[in-house]
Amino acid sequence: MKIALVVFGTRGDVQPTVALALRLLSHSHEVVLCVPPEHESWIKAYGCPVIPFGTNVKEMIKKGGEKSNSPATRPSIKTMKQEICSQIDKLPDIIRGSDLVIGVGLVHGVPTAAERLGIPYRFMAFYPGIMGPPKEAPFPDRLGFGFGRWAMNASLLGVINKKRKSIGMKPVVDIWTNWMGENVILASEKSLIPVSEGVDFHFIQTGYMFLPSLEKMSVEVENFLKAGDPPVFIGFGSNPIHNPEQYGLMLAEVAKTTGRRLIISRGWGAIESNAGMENCLFVDEVPYNLLFPHVALVIHHGGIGTMAAAAKAGVPQAAFPFMADQFMNQKELIKLGVSPKTATFKKLSAKVLIQVICEGLINAGYREKAAAIAKEINAHDGTELTVRLITSLF
Known about the structure:
By secondary structure, the chain is of the alpha/beta class. It has 15 helices and twelve strands.
């Protein structure tokens, strides 16, 4: 089979998709992998064929925040319209001859590109919230999802149908339905994010797809781990930080007050060290699958990739969400009993972080529950389950 995987999103969208691509290749399938150009180099290191396509998401969001003088969380409407047109116009030449097209992320033009060629399309999601809240969800949750769906149609439906009309295709009535496709491939962990019945779209849940790390931990990180008790990891991933100095001072206070060793990921905000942080280590890219089994607690932004990596390692974790699925992930972690109660990222403070770290380390129940969930996750291979689902479609 020839399978086209088209991603428009951050590394959290790309990394599990690369894991799928590599497994498909190992099963002798042909893969066409299209991702934002910023991911090309590290994917090539895996020996995986990759085609850079679309806009650099990280750069796009960073520039968007600078122009508006506030943190940007998603592409602008103008950028999305450009991406949709590019997907419809340029993808057909790239994916032609494929037996299946799988879209990941903000791929609103990909269903049309696939339909144009008569190729079956499936959407692959890593969190269930994208399919809507269950019927028993509180009315405000359903209302919010309905408004988001309406807003997407109001802003983007016109450009899609204009392109479809120009190539002799019937108009789309609802973007979200077209985007989700016939049956969503939900590559997430049942033990971590269970899905209630009654969501808006049909789905089949497999499991999260972990990408093995090529790089080893640096000597600096290994030496830090050996030098004392298991540290606390703090990293807010792609959450936009426009005042890194303030966050650096906040983390310095946390380190001083708790007396804990910290490993701090600079992330997109480029957080830097301050005086009094001699017992802290600042890192850029670090392989979570190698690091997390050696830490005492993982504090993060609520991204599904970081959440899944910490869960697989059997480590308590706490999320401070800023956007999208991060809020749902925060609630699930608390509900599962692997996390203390936390605040949103906007309400993050030294006081709140200190409380979460102290409770997260003292309460043995968090670690016991985290270990039980890790056992469930490690009992199956989410990537293989996803491959089996894909091949069962033919």
